[in-house]
Design brief:
111 residues, alpha+beta, 3-stranded antiparallel sheet, 41% helix, extended
């Protein structure tokens, strides 16, 4: 029985990837990932997440320098990209220190 199984040829089939045409043409992968995250939360216009959660959502590398400058570099550049490509979703954010945690409050506008 095992010999018969070893003789079987395994064929991997590649599935076609789903390409969404409704995503604006962002320059960075961070903007695309964040756009998809905002789309998931579409009914709400305000939400809060910790800076640590945001780091995981955007899949930012685990470098201390990147983490400490996340809000200054990545979020500002994402916001700039959203404006440049005339995204149907716009956002603003505010960082609040709460119980020794950085909480990011987002406000979303659907255009």
């Amino acid at each position: 029985m095992e010999e018969d199984l070893n003789k079987l040829k395994v064929i991997k089939r590649r599935r076609k990837s789903i390409v969404r045409s409704d995503i604006p043409n962002f320059k960075s992968i961070y903007a695309k990932i964040f756009y998809l995250e905002l789309e998931k939360r579409k009914p709400s216009t305000d939400f809060e997440i910790s800076l640590e959660e945001l780091k995981h959502i955007l899949m930012v590398p685990n470098l201390a320098y990147v983490y400490s400058h996340l809000r200054l570099r990545v979020l500002d550049s994402i916001m700039k990209e959203f404006n440049e490509v005339n995204s149907p979703l716009q956002f603003s954010y505010e960082i609040i220190r709460e119980n020794e945690k950085d909480i990011v409050k987002f406000q979303i506008k659907y255009i």
